[in-house]
Amino acid sequence: MDMCHGQLLPEHLANILLDSLLQQKRVNHVQLGTFAPCATSIRLADQHHVGDGGTALEVGPLLSLTRLASLRLVDMKVGDRDCAGIAALTQLTELDLRATSVSDTGVQGLSRLLRLHRLDVTWTQATAPPALSSLTNLHMENCWVGGEVALRVLHSTRFPNLRELHMSMTQFDDAGIELLRAFCIDSAPDSSANNDVVKCLTDLTNLRMLSLKSTEIDDAALPLLQSLKGSLTSLDISGNNITGEQAPEQSWGRSRLHHLRHK
């Protein structure tokens, strides 16, 4: 019997039972098939695997969970090839791939997830998120970011609804650092390839939370951050080279900012 359509297993109960089985490492293909019509959330960690043995994630069984809205695969052995299967779960609104082996190759394949709101690729090899205008919450902490990826991550035409951007402890190559500094420039020569980049952050009018902790930004970034004071309510720039000569509290003046960390 289809337990969900037969109303014997409500959605919230299916999620609880499935989580319990995963914690006990007792889930298999058959059980996943049983939960398929009703489960909307699944959380896996490094100690779990789905399938008939081995330590790597087998995406096949997950494809039966077509109603999944939330999928967390923290520290799982998930690679780029697995992303193709994950991209078939088109109902996903939340995807957590922290500390997995995915890179840009796999992450770009997630562009089919048109309902995705929250994406976390912290501690991965990804240097750019998929171009999804639906994203409202993006975590790219402890990632390596180059010049091109800065444009992809922050360009408003790609992420017009972005409300939270977390890039704490993100590492930048020389080009990436120059692009971040270019954000602070009010104007640039027409010949500059950075013209579009300069406008990226200021065009993110829905951005409410920004974390740039330990990203090696300095006082030169403050004018850029000031340009966001009309929208931001939370800003973390602690662990950086802010000297205090331009006190952030004074430079922001009256704004909507409720939470500021800079030391």
TrEMBL record:
Gene3D superfamilies attached to this UniProt entry: Ribonuclease Inhibitor (3.80.10.10)
Domain of life per record: Eukaryota
Biased composition (Polar residues): 239-253
Pfam family, any one: LRR_6
InterPro entries named among the record's database cross-references: Leu-rich_rpt (IPR001611), LRR_dom_sf (IPR032675), Zyg-11_UBL_adapter (IPR051341)
Name under which the protein is recorded: RNI-like protein
Subcellular location: Cytoplasm, Cytoskeleton, Cilium axoneme
